[in-house]
Write a structure and sequence with these properties.
By secondary structure, this protein is an alpha+beta fold. Helices cover 27% and strands 34% of the residues. The chain has two helices and five strands. A hairpin with a 5-residue loop joins strand 2 (31-35) and strand 3.
Amino acid sequence: MAKRLILHGVVQGVFCRYYCSETAKRFGLHGSATNLYDGTVEVLLDTNDDTLVDSFIDALKTNPYGIRFYGSISRVDISDYQGTIRGDYRF
């Protein structure tokens, strides 16, 4: 089952979708990132590996790869996701 992440903080207009994509590539993850109307970013990950998702979230919060990102992530909500991986920034 896929995972749905909602990223809170300063996440729109700061290269967050690109940042998520580049970080996901480091973990071999595929999915999408989409700006939502409430100012958050939705990330859909095509994996059911909770440990991998936790590592991905950790990397998003700490940016160990030095990927260009001008915002900050204050909270990540995680839920299971059933459906097609869709979004405006696919990776």
